[in-house]
Specification:
The complex is a heterotrimer.
Chain A: E1 5-8, H1 17-30, E2 35-38, H2 47-50, H3 54-63, E3 67-71, H4 79-89, E4 94-97, H5 100-106, E5 111-113, H6 122-129, E6 133-136, H7 144-153, E7 158-172, H8 176-180, E8 199-202, E9 208-213, E10 216-224, H9 229-234, E11 237-242, H10 249-260, H11 266-274, E12 282-283
Parallel strand pairs in A: 1-2, 1-11, 2-3, 3-4, 4-5, 5-6, 6-7, 7-11, 10-12
Antiparallel strand pairs in A: 7-10, 8-9, 9-10
Helix pairs in contact in A: 1-3, 4-5, 6-7, 10-11
Chain B: H1 2-6, H2 12-18, H3 24-40, H4 42-48, E1 56-60, E2 65-70, E3 77-82, E4 91-95, H5 97-104, H6 110-115, E5 120-123, H7 125-138, H8 142-145, H9 150-170
Parallel strand pairs in B: 1-4
Antiparallel strand pairs in B: 1-2, 2-3, 4-5
Helix pairs in contact in B: 3-4, 4-7
Chain C: H1 3-9, E1 13-17, H2 21-29, E2 34-38, H3 55-67, E3 71-76, H4 85-98, E4 102-105, H5 108-117, E5 122-125, H6 134-144, E6 148-150, H7 157-166, E7 170-177, E8 182-187, H8 189-194, H9 198-201, E9 210-215, E10 218-223, E11 226-231, E12 247-249, E13 252-254, E14 262-264, H10 269-274, E15 279-282, H11 289-307, H12 313-320, E16 329-330
Parallel strand pairs in C: 1-2, 1-15, 2-3, 3-4, 4-5, 5-6, 6-7, 7-15, 14-16
Antiparallel strand pairs in C: 7-14, 9-10, 10-11, 12-13
Helix pairs in contact in C: 2-3, 2-11, 3-4, 4-5, 11-12
Classes of the chains: A alpha/beta, B alpha+beta, C alpha/beta.
Chain lengths: ~300, ~180, ~350
C-alpha cells in the first residue's frame, strides 16, 4: 500500500518578500514535503510585489528536489488577476486551479482542484477528471463520508485532505482588513501585512471566532486532522495538506510525518501540535459533518 | 421584556372577564376547523412535513388561557388550557391576542413583529417557521378558517377586519404591515 | 450593431421570487416577467421549513404562470451530496417535465446531467456558481450550453459592462433584497458555526441553530452558540445572519462584514440596462406575499418607466421605502466604494 504523502499548501497571508524567500528556503532545505504549492491565491493587489520573488523561490524548491505546484487565484476579477492565471496555466509546471477561470485555461492538461473549487460529489469530480484533474483537495466543509464516496468512485484520483491550518471559509469582493482599518480597498495601504496569520475576529462576548485576511475569511481555530494512516487510507485519502502559518512549519511537518508513518498516534500528534504556539485552538468538526469549530474525539 | 409585551394587550378587566368563559367549547370549534381544513387543503399539511406532529403552544398573553395546537391533518387537535397548566410544547408563540390574530389573516408580517419583540418565540424555531410559511400559503381569513362560506364569510371577514382594526388602534398595537 | 447594444435596447426582464404557490400567484399578478422557485428539499438554496414547491405544485404553478405569460425558472442550485446525486438529477427531470422555462443550477454534476439528458431545457447558471470572469462564463457556455448567468453580487456596474462585451450569454443581476456579502457558493461561515451551510444543506444561518437569550436586559442573538449580535431593551432585534453581525476586530466593535442593510439598486436600473444586463433579480423566496407583491409592483413600474423613457425614481423609491430591513439600503458592490 502506498505511503501517505504530505504537501505544503499555498501561503494565504500577505507575507513580505523577504519572509517568503526565507520561509521557502527553509522548506527547501529542512522539510520533507512531497509537494509544495506556491503562489498568491487571495489578493490580486499583492501580485506585483510577490511576483518578483516567485521565480527565485520556485527555482530554489525545484533545486532541492521538491515537486512544485503553482496555485492560482480563488476569486479573479480584474484583468490583472485573469492575466496572472493565464500566465501560470501556460507554464510547464503543475497548476492548482481555485476558480473555474483557471479550469477554462488549463482544461485538458493535468491540474489540481484546490479547496476553493466547489467539488461536492462524484459527478462533479468525474466531470473535472475528464478535463484533467489529477488531485482534488475538497472544500473544507465536506465531511469525510462524502470524500470517501468520491474517492471510491474515482480510484485514479488523488484526494488531498486539508489537514492543518486555519480553515479557508469564505472569499468576498470586499476587503475586511481595509474595512477594519477604515480604508478603501483601492487605497488599502496593504494593512493585511500586519497580521501574518490573519486578523482576529471575536464575538461580542469576546469568544474567538474567525480571522480575516484581506478579502478572505478564515476560521480562528486551527484544523488538525489526526486520524491514523490506516483510517485515512480507508477513506481514500492519498495526501495531507498543511497550510502555512507563522508557527514553525518544520515542526508541524515532523509531527505529520510521524503520524502518517505510524510512529505516533493521533493523540500524541494532537498533544505535540498543542505544544506549538498555534494561532487558535485545534478543531476537526468538519470531518464528521459537525460544526467546523468543534474538536470531536475521533 | 414585559413592557414590550404590553403593546397591543387587552385591558386587565377584559382579560379577567374572559376567565369566566368555559374553555372546552372554543377548543372544540377550533379542532373541527383545523380538521375541516385538512380535508380541503391536504397540501398545507404536507407542507408542514414533520412539524404536523409538533406541539405548538399559542400563548395570547392578555387572556388567561393558552392553546395547544397539534396540526396533524385530520387528527389535528386544538385545546384551550388554563395558563397555570400550560404544557411544554415543541415551540411556544406568545404575544397579545390581536397580534396573534393579525398573523393569521396576514395583517402582520411574522418577521416584523418578531424583530420588534411584539411576538416572542421559544423552543424549536424550525417548527415555528414551518407553521408561519404554511399560514402564508394558506391565506386564510378568520371566517374561512371557521368554515363559513360565500357571502356570509365575506361579511364576517369585513366585520372582523374592521373590528380588529379598531381594536388594534384602541390597544396601541403595532401598526399593520 | 454589436451584441452589447443589441442587448441594451431590449426591455429588462424582471425575475421575482416565489417561496410558495401563493407567493408565485402574488408575483405573477404584480407583473413579474419571470418567477423563480425551488423544490421542497435540499436541491434548492432556500431549503427552509414550510417553504417551496412539491412537484405537483410546480406543475400547477407553471400552468398558472403560463396562462398569464409569465416564465417559471426553477432553482436546483445546491451542490449534490456525494452518494445521493440522484435526488438532484430527479429534480432536474421534474423541472423538464413541468414545462418550466429554465433550470437554474450551480453544481457541475447537475449542469452536466441537465445538458446531457435534457438538451432542450434552458440552463441558467446560478449565482452559487460564482462565475465572474469571461473565461469562467464562456467555459460554462461551451461545456454545458448555459444561456444565462446570474452574476455574483461582488461586481461593479463598470465591471458588468466590460464583462458583457466579452461573453455571449445573457446576464442577470440582483437588484433588491438580502445581500450576500461573501461570494455566494464560496462561503462556509454558516457550517463553521452550525454544521449547515448553503452548499451542504441549502440553508445559511439556519433558524434551528438560532437562540435569543435575555441576559441582564440585553437580548443576545446567537448562532450555534456564537453571539452574532446584541440588542438593548426596547431596541428592535435582528436575525443573526452570520455575516451581518457585530464583531470585535482591531480593538473596536463593528459590523465588520456588512451592515444590516439590504440591497436596493432601483436607482441604477438605467445604468444596468446600458451595461447590457438582460434580467433583474429580486431576492426573497422566504418573504411573504404582501412583501413580494409590493416589491414586484415597484420594480415593474420602474422597468416600464425605463422603457417609456420616463424617470420614475421618486415614485419607485416611495413604493420601496417600507420594504427594506430596518429601512437601511445599499447599492452594494455595484458602486465600487462598497469595497
Amino acid at each position: 500500500m502506498n505511503a501517505l504523502e504530505l504537501s505544503l499548501g499555498p501561503v494565504f497571508f500577505n507575507w513580505p518578500n523577504e519572509k517568503l524567500v526565507e520561509f521557502y528556503a527553509r522548506m527547501a532545505d529542512e522539510s520533507d514535503f512531497d509537494r509544495i504549492y506556491v503562489g498568491e491565491v487571495i489578493c490580486g493587489k499583492r501580485l506585483p510585489f510577490s511576483d518578483k520573488v516567485w521565480p527565485e523561490i520556485i527555482e530554489r524548491l525545484l533545486g532541492a528536489g521538491k515537486e512544485v505546484v503553482l496555485s492560482t487565484m480563488a476569486l479573479p476579477v480584474t484583468t490583472r488577476d485573469r492575466k496572472s492565471i493565464a500566465g501560470l496555466c501556460e507554464m510547464d509546471l503543475k497548476v492548482e486551479v481555485n476558480d473555474i477561470n483557471g479550469l477554462a485555461r488549463r482544461s485538458g492538461q493535468p491540474f489540481v482542484a484546490g479547496p476553493f473549487m466547489n467539488v461536492y460529489n462524484e459527478g462533479a469530480a468525474l466531470a473535472l477528471q475528464k478535463r484533467g484533474m489529477e488531485t482534488l483537495c475538497p472544500p473544507v466543509e465536506l465531511p469525510l463520508s462524502s470524500i470517501e464516496i468520491i474517492a471510491k468512485a474515482l480510484p485514479e484520483l488523488t484526494i488531498e485532505l486539508f489537514a492543518f491550518g486555519r480553515l479557508p471559509l469564505a472569499v468576498s469582493g470586499r476587503c475586511y482588513h481595509a474595512r477594519a482599518h477604515k480604508l478603501h480597498k483601492d487605497s488599502c495601504q496593504f494593512v493585511c501585512d500586519q497580521d501574518p496569520d490573519g486578523m482576529d475576529v471575536t464575538t461580542l462576548d469576546n469568544q474567538q471566532f474567525l480571522s480575516a485576511n484581506g478579502i478572505q475569511t478564515l476560521s480562528h481555530s486551527v484544523q488538525a486532522v489526526t486520524l491514523s494512516p490506516d483510517e485515512l487510507r480507508a477513506k481514500g485519502i492519498g495526501r495531507l495538506r498543511l497550510s502555512p502559518h507563522s508557527v514553525d512549519m518544520i515542526a508541524v511537518n515532523k509531527i505529520y510525518r510521524d503520524l502518517v508513518n505510524g510512529k505516533i498516534d493521533g493523540e500524541e500528534a494532537q498533544a505535540r501540535l498543542s505544544e506549538l504556539p498555534l494561532p487558535g485552538k485545534l478543531a476537526n468538526g468538519y470531518l464528521g459533518g459537525k460544526p467546523g469549530h468543534v474538536w470531536a474525539a475521533e | 421584556m414585559n413592557q414590550q409585551r404590553e403593546r397591543g394587550s387587552l385591558p386587565p378587566l377584559f382579560s379577567g372577564a374572559l376567565r369566566l368563559v368555559p374553555p372546552p367549547p372554543l377548543g372544540f370549534v377550533l379542532t373541527r376547523a383545523v380538521r375541516r381544513l385538512a380535508v380541503q387543503r391536504p397540501d398545507l399539511f404536507e407542507r408542514l412535513d414533520v412539524y404536523r406532529h409538533a406541539h405548538f403552544i399559542i400563548d395570547p398573553i392578555d387572556i388567561p388561557h393558552v392553546f395547544r395546537l397539534i396540526p396533524n391533518g385530520e387528527h389535528a387537535t386544538v385545546e384551550m388550557i388554563a395558563r397555570s397548566k400550560c404544557p411544554k410544547g415543541t415551540a411556544k408563540i406568545s404575544g397579545p391576542l390581536v397580534v396573534l390574530l393579525g398573523l393569521v389573516d396576514g395583517t402582520y408580517d411574522g418577521d416584523a413583529v418578531f424583530f420588534t419583540r411584539d411576538l416572542v418565540i421559544e423552543g424549536d424555531t424550525d417548527a415555528v417557521l414551518a407553521l408561519r410559511n404554511t399560514m402564508e400559503e394558506a391565506d386564510l381569513t378568520p371566517a374561512e378558517l371557521l368554515g363559513f362560506k360565500g357571502d356570509l364569510r365575506d361579511k364576517l371577514d369585513t366585520v372582523t377586519q374592521k373590528g380588529l382594526g379598531a381594536l388594534r388602534r384602541q390597544l396601541n398595537a403595532p401598526e399593520a404591515y | 450593431m454589436s451584441e452589447n447594444t443589441l442587448k441594451s435596447t431590449q426591455s429588462l426582464e424582471l425575475v421575482c421570487p416565489a417561496g410558495t404557490p401563493a407567493a408565485m400567484k402574488a408575483a405573477v399578478e404584480a407583473g413579474a416577467h419571470s418567477v423563480y422557485c425551488g423544490f421542497r428539499n435540499e436541491t434548492n438554496a432556500r431549503n427552509f421549513p414550510g417553504l417551496n414547491f412539491s412537484e405537483r405544485e410546480l406543475n400547477q404553478g407553471v400552468k398558472l404562470a403560463r396562462s398569464k405569460g409569465t416564465k417559471v425558472l426553477v432553482a436546483v442550485n445546491t451542490f449534490a451530496r456525494a452518494g445521493d446525486v440522484s435526488l438532484w438529477t430527479k429534480a432536474v427531470d421534474a423541472v423538464a417535465a413541468s414545462g418550466a422555462h429554465a433550470i437554474i443550477a450551480a453544481d457541475i454534476a447537475v449542469l452536466d446531467y441537465a445538458a446531457t439528458h435534457h438538451p432542450d431545457l434552458r440552463l441558467h447558471l446560478s449565482v452559487q456558481a460564482a462565475a465572474a470572469t469571461p473565461e469562467a462564463i464562456n467555459f460554462y457556455e461551451e461545456t454545458f450550453n448555459v444561456q444565462r448567468v446570474v452574476l455574483p453580487r461582488v461586481m461593479s456596474v463598470e465591471e458588468i459592462e466590460r464583462l458583457n462585451k466579452e461573453i455571449n450569454v445573457e446576464t442577470e443581476v440582483f437588484v433588491f433584497g438580502g445581500l450576500c456579502v461573501m461570494t455566494e457558493g464560496r462561503c462556509a461561515l454558516s457550517s463553521y458555526a452550525t454544521g449547515k451551510s448553503p452548499n451542504l444543506t441549502g440553508v445559511c444561518s439556519p433558524p434551528g441553530d438560532v437562540s435569543y437569550d435575555d441576559e441582564g436586559g440585553n437580548l443576545h442573538a446567537r448562532l450555534g452558540g456564537f453571539t452574532i449580535d446584541r440588542f438593548e431593551n426596547g431596541e428592535a432585534a435582528g436575525y443573526p445572519t452570520l455575516c451581518k453581525g457585530r464583531f470585535n476586530a482591531q480593538g473596536s466593535t463593528s459590523y465588520l462584514f456588512e451592515d444590516p442593510v439590504s440591497l436596493n439598486a432601483a436607482a441604477l436600473l438605467p445604468r444596468l440596462k446600458k451595461a447590457g444586463v438582460t434580467a433583474l433579480k429580486i431576492e426573497g423566496r422566504q418573504r411573504g406575499k404582501a412583501y413580494i407583491s409590493q416589491v414586484v409592483k415597484a420594480f415593474r413600474a420602474a422597468v416600464d418607466a425605463l422603457d417609456e423613457g420616463r424617470d420614475a425614481q421618486q415614485e419607485v423609491s416611495a413604493m420601496l421605502a417600507a420594504m427594506t430591513e430596518g429601512g437601511r439600503e445599499t447599492t452594494g458592490a455595484y458602486k465600487k466604494i462598497w469595497r
